[in-house]
């Protein structure tokens, strides 16, 4: 059995917004800059004609205050209404080509308790090659992500089913949240409850911008190529200016943290790591941790965010931790013993001829 622990942190960059937690009848009410949709619209309009940008800027200047107060439940799961969403949905009903996936805004809207949100996977069973067991072949019935047609080949495991490892130097973990795979590198071993596994972690190459890892260049979408340390996932998030990184810009180019107060990258807290029992492929420890950042596009025709233009703003970071329980660790150790006995028997038979 696996023990799962989740942690979600709303970032508090002093430069732009803070979650000011107040206790009201036992409910957390965060005061939150309601600028996600405005940022998205500004980013989408960045290549439009000056007149369109002018109209867009005038529209925002007449909208309500961008600071709103919502419960954590609304902010994360239930969602709340927004004027921009209503306008976009109205345009869509009049056959204007605009992609509006939801009727409300929340970080994980419609995801809680959903069996279909992440899409359909097609993965290898290991019947033809045991060492391919659990490897994803298709996602949403395609072998390449629509978000990254040039470099989004579906590969790796979704993280909970692995084959025995053959001294792998790297592992790929496919994440539907970013519509592509994360590459982790071997980093020795780690022991949990007296069971030792191979450890794989994020490093500087995980979110490289192509400066060191040539294959990462294709993630620089359009005319934008950000400093190393973040991955442009805007095409995965309906055009929103979303960039994923490790929490607190851990291992990212120093230019990111220099513009935001309160960044304290820490390997012990912010490293993405996976520990797998090498002989069975059983995950012993998993700590999946990512941060979502929004890019404030700089444009002299759009004034609403001109004070923060050209800045990557941390919005939220989350960690999901999974560890085997003591009861399950005993079973893994028994498997270890059986494997040793099996190989000893094979060796004995071979030597006896």
From TrEMBL:
<dbReference type="GO" id="GO:0005737">
    <property type="term" value="C:cytoplasm"/>
</dbReference>
<feature type="transmembrane region" description="Helical">
    <location>
        <begin position="334"/>
        <end position="351"/>
    </location>
</feature>
<keyword id="KW-0325">Glycoprotein</keyword>
<keyword id="KW-0472">Membrane</keyword>
<keyword id="KW-1133">Transmembrane helix</keyword>
<comment type="similarity">
    <text>Belongs to the CD36 family.</text>
</comment>
<dbReference type="InterPro" id="IPR002159">
    <property type="entry name" value="CD36_fam"/>
</dbReference>
<dbReference type="GO" id="GO:0005044">
    <property type="term" value="F:scavenger receptor activity"/>
</dbReference>
<dbReference type="GO" id="GO:0005886">
    <property type="term" value="C:plasma membrane"/>
</dbReference>
<dbReference type="Pfam" id="PF01130">
    <property type="entry name" value="CD36"/>
</dbReference>
<protein>
    <recommendedName>
        <fullName>Protein croquemort</fullName>
    </recommendedName>
</protein>
<keyword id="KW-1003">Cell membrane</keyword>
<keyword id="KW-0812">Transmembrane</keyword>
């Amino acid at each position: 059995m696996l023990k799962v622990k989740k942690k979600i942190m709303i970032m508090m960059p002093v430069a732009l917004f803070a979650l000011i937690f107040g206790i009201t009848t036992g409910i957390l009410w965060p005061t939150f800059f309601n600028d996600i949709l405005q940022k998205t619209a500004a980013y989408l309009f960045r290549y439009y004609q000056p007149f369109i940008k002018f109209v867009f800027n005038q529209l925002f200047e007449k909208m309500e205050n961008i600071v709103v107060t919502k419960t954590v439940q609304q902010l994360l799961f239930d969602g709340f209404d927004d004027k921009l969403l209503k306008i976009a949905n109205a345009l869509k009903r009049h056959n204007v080509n605009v992609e509006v996936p939801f009727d409300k805004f929340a970080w994980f809207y419609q995801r809680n308790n959903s069996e279909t949100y992440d899409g359909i996977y097609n993965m290898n069973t290991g019947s033809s090659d045991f060492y391919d067991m659990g490897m994803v072949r298709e996602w949403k019935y395609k072998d390449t992500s629509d978000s990254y047609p040039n470099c989004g080949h579906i590969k790796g495991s979704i993280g909970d089913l692995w084959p025995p490892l053959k001294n792998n130097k790297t592992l790929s973990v496919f994440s539907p949240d970013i519509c592509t795979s994360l590459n982790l590198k071997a980093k020795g071993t780690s022991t949990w409850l007296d069971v030792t596994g191979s450890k794989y972690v994020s490093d500087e190459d995980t979110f490289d911008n192509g400066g060191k890892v040539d294959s990462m260049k294709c993630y620089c979408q359009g005319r934008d190529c950000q400093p190393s340390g973040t991955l442009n996932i805007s095409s995965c998030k309906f055009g929103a200016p979303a960039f994923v990184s490790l929490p607190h810009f851990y291992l990212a180019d120093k230019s990111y943290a220099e513009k935001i107060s309160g960044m304290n990258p820490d390997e012990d807290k912010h490293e993405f790591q996976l520990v797998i029992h090498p002989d069975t492929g059983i995950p012993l420890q998993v700590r999946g941790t990512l941060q979502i950042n929004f890019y404030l596009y700089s444009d002299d025709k759009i004034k609403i965010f001109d004070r923060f233009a050209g800045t990557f703003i941390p919005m939220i970071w989350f960690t999901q931790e999974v560890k085997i329980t003591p009861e399950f660790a005993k079973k893994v150790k028994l498997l270890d013993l059986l494997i040793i006995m099996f190989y000893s028997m094979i060796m004995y038979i071979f030597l006896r001829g």
